[in-house]
Amino acid sequence: xxxxxxxxxxxxxxxxxxxxxxxxxxxxxxxxxxxxxxxxxxxxxxxxxxxxxxxxxxxxxxxxxxxxxxxxxxxxxxxxxxxxxxxxxxxxxxxxxxxxxxxxxxxxxxxxxxxxxxxxxxxxxxxxxxxxxxxxxxxxxxxxxxxxxxxxxxxxxxxxxxxxxxxxxxxxxxxxxxxxxxxxxxxxxxxxxxxxxxxxxxxxxxxxxxxxxxxxxxxxxxxxxxxxxxxxxxxxxxxxxxxxxxxxxxxxxxxxxxx
Length: 259
Description:
By secondary structure, this protein is an alpha/beta fold. The chain has one domain: 2-enoyl-CoA Hydratase, Chain A, domain 1. The chain is 46% helix and 16% strand. It contains 11 helices and 10 strands. Strands 1-2-3-4-5-7-10 form a 7-stranded mixed beta sheet, sandwiched between helices. Strands 6-8-9 form a 3-stranded mixed beta sheet. Helix 5 (144-152) crosses helix 6 and helix 5 packs across helix 10 (218-236). The radius of gyration is 18 Å and the shape is globular. It starts with a strand and ends in a 10-residue tail after the last helix.
């Protein structure tokens, strides 16, 4: 058993299962650049460590992730493919072993899009997923503009991405984003039980089965991430995003009428 803790990301490995916990409850588990770097490095370790057979992401039973930390995001915007966020996203998109998530409470922006790269997702019945990129003057990331239409169907994807309004666990179950909905107090333990079940299986079979399922569009996913990232970076510097972020910090409704 080994444990590697930081203030905001906890990384714990036991019995072939690495658990990565978002642990910044005071800010609703919003993610900073430093947190992305920690998760990127944990994923890289899990990839290379033969003792790690499965990875599980989790938050708290009241909140999974409120998205990017807006203040940190403005002070240190992601700078292309060298940024910690891109390293994290490409790391989970190409991760060869089983990747699971337990999601309770709000899962905003990256809190939802990262789930598209997980193999199994278990949600508390209090989970609320949202993709508010348009409302922030931005565009989707994490290849979600490719993967969400494929998973949800185009019209439901358009509803989720263009309106950016939350949808609940049962709707996420219906479109295939989550595998099962449980009481929030049970979701994490259930995900861990499935992770242990997977860790007992032959890793060569797990890795090859996942490779065969993913290989048809892996390159398209990575290319979409690059294209989204370029648009995202450009839009981040434009008036709509500046108005959205300023309004967020000032706790007022943004006004896009003159943009």
